[in-house]
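Exercise: predict the structure of this protein bound to adenosine-5'-diphosphate.
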Amino acid sequence: MTMDAVQDAPRLQSTGVPPSAGRASKRPHVTIRNLSKRFDKAIVYDNFDLDIPRGELISVFGPNGCGKSTLINMIAGLVPPDAGEILFDGMRLDEIKFGYVFQNYREALFPWLRAFDNIAYPLKMMKVEPAERKARTERLVARLGIKLDLNLYPYQMSGGQQQLVSIMRALVVEPEILFLDEPSAGVDVSLRKNMWKPVRECANPG
Ligand SMILES: Nc1ncnc2c1ncn2[C@@H]1O[C@H](COP(=O)(O)OP(=O)(O)O)[C@@H](O)[C@H]1O
Ligand SMILES: [Mg+2]
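Solution:
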């Protein structure tokens, strides 16, 4: 990783979730090479390299405006880099399945859909049949042991519950990589614990 030219560079930290037995693999899953991005005169990334191993939770730390969201959004394909390459086991983003949990969960859920239908929504986009959508959503909820009335609409849920629904919506496609932008912002301490459970399960299934 080369970030010397960048002021207030974000720092990366692995939370050290060990890959489960039999799936252990430390080779890089995501490889970022020579990534550069500027907004007008502000250089946010300049020839940035990073390897992210499969099965690990990686956190990006740094002060406001240092480029955390820009990095995650470039990896997730929401912001185009000026230069550089991002590959997932050698594949491009459009060849893999990924999930994204937006920072602003209050606006990220569909207010007219119940929790269940919010979670199942990506499957609908993938043209999965209704019965299969229901089965897969129920399986995910059961696996995570989430205690939440899935008939509720977003306005009937607490912030933390909405965030759990956002995370489950990202997990329902069984993503190879999951992006979360400040997922615990505005979530109280007791719910943070619940919130991380599905994320850890995703990083380390079975
Ligand atoms: N669309 C944009 N247009 C212009 N500048 C932007 C844009 N997005 C981000 N920036 C700038 O890039 C820098 C990094 O932003 P961001 O990645 O959102 O920071 P963080 O998520 O670490 O708070 C900031 O200086 C911000 O003002
Ligand atoms: Mg941000």
